[in-house]
Write a structure and sequence with these properties.
about 150 residues, alpha+beta, Ubiquitin-like (UB roll), DNA polymerase, domain 1, 2 domains, 5-stranded mixed beta sheet, 5 strands, about 35% helix, binds FE2/S2 (inorganic) cluster, Xanthine dehydrogenase YagT iron-sulfur-binding subunit, metal ion binding, oxidoreductase, 2Fe-2S, 2 iron, 2 sulfur cluster binding
């Protein structure tokens, strides 16, 4: 598969999740493991341009796929993705554990055009839990990046 623009070939157990592949085999630990059961959204990444929970995705099914993680979102070392910058500008995190998943999901929300209102953003990001309760600022960050 291609991960953040780099072709990767790994030999893995066929039960390995994409999340464990990223974190344990490719050292891409920006993608977080919260529940490991599809309930929290901390592991959100993009596969072929669509949001997925990496904990629920079997890595062996992704042969040839393009995977983007939080590490691959910025265009360069010097310039953050607009939504990463918006999270900083809006102070949209506290502990930060859910942030990579929130940002990857927010990018999907923007690309899919679900940013018409705060309620629409909340609905389309409802799979991403923030235990610190930063939802108001997360929505503001998505709105900033969408405009
Ligand atoms: Fe995948 Fe929680 S770790 S949804």
């Amino acid at each position: 598969m291609i991960v953040n623009g780099v072709r990767q070939t790994v030999t893995i157990d066929n039960r390995t999740s994409l999340l464990d592949l990223l974190r344990e085999h490719l050292d891409l630990t920006g993608t977080k493991k919260g529940c490991d059961a599809g309930a929290c959204g901390a592991c959100t990444v993009q596969v072929d341009g669509r949001r997925v929970n990496a904990c629920l995705t079997l890595a062996v099914r992704l042969e040839g796929a393009e995977v983007t993680t939080i590490e691959g979102l910025a265009q360069s070392e010097d310039e953050l993705h607009p939504l990463q910058q918006a999270f900083i500008d809006q102070d949209a995190f506290q502990c930060g554990y859910c942030t990579p998943g929130q940002i990857m999901s927010g990018v999907g929300c923007i690309e899919e055009g679900h940013t018409g209102s705060p309620g629409e953003i909340r609905e389309w990001m409802s799979g991403n839990i923030c235990r610190c309760g930063c939802y108001v600022k997360i929505v503001k960050a998505v709105q900033q990046a969408a405009h």
